[in-house]
Each structure stands twice: as C-alpha cells, then as structure tokens.
Design brief:
The chain is built from 6 helices and 2 strands. By secondary structure, the protein is mostly helical. A two-stranded antiparallel sheet has the order 1-2.
C-alpha cells in the first residue's frame, strides 16, 4: 500500500516583491542550496530586464511566465502493446512549475556571461512571445493537437 501524499510546505514570500511565485522561481533556480546567490541572480536579472525592456522588470517577468506556461501536454500510455501520446490538460500548479522549469532551463542553455544576464535575455524574449521557452510551449501544444485523435484513451 502506498504512503499518504507529502504535505505541501508553505513558502515564505520574498522580501522585495512580497510574492510567493518569486520564491518558487528562485527555489527552482537555486543550485547546491545557495538561496542567497539565487536571489541575487534573480534580482540582478530583473534589473537588467528593466534596462532592456524599459518597463517594470517584475511585470515583464510575470508576463514572460504567462507566455511560457503550457495549457496541455502529452503523456505516454501503453495500450495493447502500442504506446500512444495522449493529450491531457495540465493542472494549474503543474502549469506554473513546468513554465518555470522551461524558463530557467533555456536561460541556462543560452550563451552569455552570467546567469543573471542569460535569464534577463530569456525573460525579455519570452515576454515578447519569442525565445526557446515559448517555442517549447508551442511545440508541446502542436504535439497535443496532432495527437488529439487519441484523447479518448485519457485516464
């Protein structure tokens, strides 16, 4: 028998913007438990976003995150020896975390000097509807659309 589900731990909002989403983003970005380094990197990135976009960096980041969050995804399911890609709706909590993972992952893959600079570039690109993270979202939606015929296999 499976154990009960782990309880969701409450997150402390960040000090600058008083937002839990920022803390969540920084927690995903953090490496080796160095949270203060991750916060500094994030805040530096938002400052650079303000210089690049000439808008409020926090608002641009929120817009970028909304542009990256997918609405549907495909899940593999074996039925009678064949594997089908079945499109499924994403629950809101997962939608946010997937969007954050894509934004951070593609920022890391960019070439540039610092993580703050790379993250700033990815945020600005995503807020305009461009960039690798937005392309990933579009590809995911396209794949779900292509496999719409198998949606009756949904669990």
């Amino acid at each position: 028998m499976r154990k009960s589900r782990a309880k969701k731990r409450p997150l402390v909002p960040d000090t600058k913007y008083n937002d839990i989403m920022v803390t969540r983003f920084v927690n995903m970005m953090m490496l080796d438990g160095k949270k203060s380094v991750a916060f500094k990197c994030f805040y530096d990135a938002l400052e650079q976003v303000e210089k690049m976009a000439k808008e409020n960096g926090y608002e641009v980041w929120k817009k970028a995150l909304n542009n990256v969050m997918p609405g549907v995804e495909v899940r593999s399911r074996r039925i009678g020896g064949a594997t089908f890609q079945i499109p499924t709706e994403i629950r809101p909590d997962r939608k946010i975390s997937v969007g954050m993972k894509w934004l951070i992952g593609y920022a890391r893959k960019r070439n540039g000097k610092s993580m703050a600079y790379k993250l700033a570039q990815e945020i600005v690109a995503a807020s305009k509807g461009e960039g690798a993270a937005v392309k990933k979202k579009d590809d995911t939606h396209r794949m779900a659309e292509a496999n719409k015929a198998f949606s009756h296999f949904r669990v």
